[in-house]
Amino acid sequence: MTSSRSFLLLCTVGIFCFISYNMVRMPVLALFAEHLGAGPERIGLIVSVSTLTGVLLKLPSGALSDIYGRRFLLRIGVVAFGLPPFLYLFITDLNSLTALRFVHGLATAIFAPTALATVAELYRERRGAALGTYTACTQSGALLGPFIGGYLAHVAGFDAAFITAGVCGCIAIVLFYSLHLEVATPRVVQKGLRPLLAEMWKGFAIVARNRKVLITSATDGAKMIANGALMAFLPLYGLTVGLNPGEVGLLFSVQAGTSFFSKPIMGRVSDRVGRQPLIIIGLLICAATFVCMPHVSIFAVLLLLSAGFGFGEAVVSSSSSAFVADSSEFKTLGAGMGMQGTIGDIGHASGPLLAGILIANMSYAGAFTIIASLQVAAAVMFWVTMRNR
């Protein structure tokens, strides 16, 4: 396969994987947890627990892809997307749901950093555009998944949403295993656990000393705090102002749709004008739209704010991933992407937990204001750090 065909394969598999994942994740997951009797704090925990898997495993997965090759890790990751959705059919209590969400998180923990590193390898000169296009394709899963999942849950029940998600994941498995992905040859390491751990530690140490990777990953994590809070509590807020599950799903679809169309364009812009200004601008857009949401009950206005948040996400994501790739050494590209994913998942996991605690003790408006201020602080921190360097 040529690089362009490998890229097309990754994009196609990514579409089906993330349709499957997002059909379960939002808004179905929060509604399903509430159906099983969860309160705000427990919903926040359940929504965030799959992200905790990424916190623990994205960096090791990225480092392992540097050693064993991208194809091996991608094969494991795509299976983790396809099979777990069927297990939700047997869930009847909150503890089992929490455990399954942790297992389901293996999908993005293994697949995501490896796929990003693969794209960055395939297109070293046009990383912004290539990464923007790939992440737009995965974003199409967030575009279609929530709407399909919310609609199926509304008209046919939760089981229909879970089965459909599993079918989409199995399509991704069949596509990936039936086609050959052309990627770089893995490094040769001595057999045994000790040489492997030594090689992984070497990659960790190189990435941990890279301040550009760390500070950029931190800004991405601030954005993901707000994203996680929206994922967990926008469905519940929508229901309190009179929206139905299908309309709530449409809010997420509009957010994802705006991001989908914006990412390739903003990736090309970042190739031309630089990554750093766009990261700052994107964070400020996310903060401004996020803080306004709990003050609005009109569906059309909520759609507009969701679209604005999606655009801000696109501006940040298309630039931050490329900036991390630009700043990483070639032999630790997977580890660099894993570090970004790990810090981003820390933000994504803490968002629902933080929002759940704040909402339980104050209002939606107060909680969203505090979380929006974190994004503004991250933008200021990034600007000061890069200006000094």
Automatic annotation (TrEMBL):
SUPFAM superfamilies found in the cross-reference section: MFS general substrate transporter (SSF103473)
Primary subcellular site in the record, as a coarse category: membrane
Gene3D superfamilies per UniProt: MFS general substrate transporter like domains
Lineage: superkingdom: Bacteria
Major facilitator superfamily (MFS) profile domain segment(s): 6-389
Keyword Cytoplasm: no
Alphabetized CDD domains for the sequence: MFS_MdtG_SLC18_like
Presence of the UniProt keyword Transmembrane in the record: yes
Membrane topology, record value: Multi-pass membrane protein
Entry's Gene Ontology molecular function annotations: transmembrane transporter activity
Matching InterPro entries: MFS, MFS_dom, MFS_Exporter, MFS_trans_sf, Sugar_transporter_CS
Transmembrane segments: 7-23, 43-60, 72-91, 103-123, 130-154, 160-179, 278-311, 362-384
Protein name according to UniProt: Putative Multidrug resistance protein MdtG
Keywords associated with the record: Membrane, Transmembrane, Transmembrane helix
Localisation per UniProt entry: Membrane
Listed GO CC annotations: membrane
